[in-house]
Automatic annotation (TrEMBL):
The protein's name: Methyltransferase domain-containing protein
Pfam families for the chain: Methyltransf_25
Top-level taxon of the source organism: Eukaryota
Domain annotation Methyltransferase: ranges: 51-146
Signal peptide: none
Length: 276
């Protein structure tokens, strides 16, 4: 029996300068982590390649992809809000931006139009029952033979590591629990199951890469996590005035400075829409 759809979480990050800097920082961190913008298994050398960036944010991925592809390629960014979009004067003419809820059907002009569809960091926006619906909608954009590339952290695999084997730290324990399940209604199981979900929706899985955070980028990822907590538009509960969170963030900074760290793997899944 199909499970009941849950209330989808709202986007709970702010959209100011710090939020945009965080998205850009994460982009370059992910590029350093993976070593690519478009996965090397995806043939991206067609001069008239059509690429879609879903949840385009500050468009940083789309802008960099546009800078690397010939001007004859076309890149479309979709986001529910254009507040963080790059101004027209900083965009190439082959980058087209749209306001679109990616959980809702796309306009017919985009259906079956794209060679590459790209998604990243949807974890805060998706619960198990929504993942297949979102995936179907993403796949609707692909032409036959087109590729979907989806990169996510694997929060259920996160663990805290301490300088001594028997060590522990309350603030780190709280962070790990929060990353495993931030709220009662939140489920992250869908992320580890992305390869199966791709198959269920008829995609041929070309790659399902589990990526470990290398030691030299650990500290940078800690900064991203801390800024993400500072960047939330509201706390976990209506009565949360942010004080508890500020104390927690300073405890985490101390724990990181004392050598504890978060082991946080990622997954990049690439699927190909079958041609027939
Ligand atoms: C999905 S993340 C990705 C950010 C960026 N592309 C990256 O890779 O780091 C955040 C973006 O998703 C957008 N977003 C949230 N809900 C959305 C929805 N239902 N449809 C489309 N975009 C959405 C937010 O407005 C925000 O710009």
């Amino acid at each position: 029996m199909a499970s009941e759809p849950t209330q989808r979480p709202d986007y709970f990050f702010k959209r100011g300068v710090q939020s945009s800097v965080r998205l850009n920082y994460n982009h370059w961190l992910m590029k350093e982590l993976t070593g690519y913008l478009i996965h090397p298994a995806i043939p991206a050398n067609k001069p008239d390649l059509w690429v879609a960036d879903l949840g385009s944010g500050t468009n940083i991925w789309a802008l960099e992809v546009a800078a690397h592809l010939p001007e004859t390629a076309r890149i479309d960014g979709f986001d529910i809000s254009g507040d963080q979009y790059a101004p027209a004067t900083s965009r190439p003419s082959n980058l087209h931006l749209h306001i679109q809820d990616c959980f809702k059907p796309f306009s017919s002009e985009f259906v079956g139009a794209f060679d590459v569809v790209y998604a990243r960091f949807w974890l805060c926006l998706v619960n198990n029952p929504d993942a297949s619906d979102l995936l179907k909608n993403m796949i609707s954009l692909l032409n036959p033979g087109g590729y979907l590339q989806w990169l996510e952290p694997l929060p259920l695999s996160v663990r805290g590591v301490h300088p001594s084997a028997e060590g522990s730290n309350t603030a780190i324990d709280r962070l790990v629990s929060h990353l495993h399940k931030p709220t009662e209604n939140k489920t992250y199981d869908w992320i580890g199951k992305l390869p199966e979900l791709f198959c269920e929706q008829g995609l041929e899985v070309i790659a399902a890469d589990r990526i470990l955070f290398p030691k030299h980028l650990r500290h940078a990822w800690h900064h991203s996590l801390l800024v993400a907590f500072e960047d939330r538009a509201q706390g976990d509960t209506p009565s949360d005035n942010g004080e508890d969170q500020k104390i927690w963030i300073s405890q985490l900074m101390e724990a990181f400075a004392n050598g504890s760290y978060i082991d946080s793997p990622f997954i990049c899944v690439v699927g190909r829409k079958k041609s027939c």
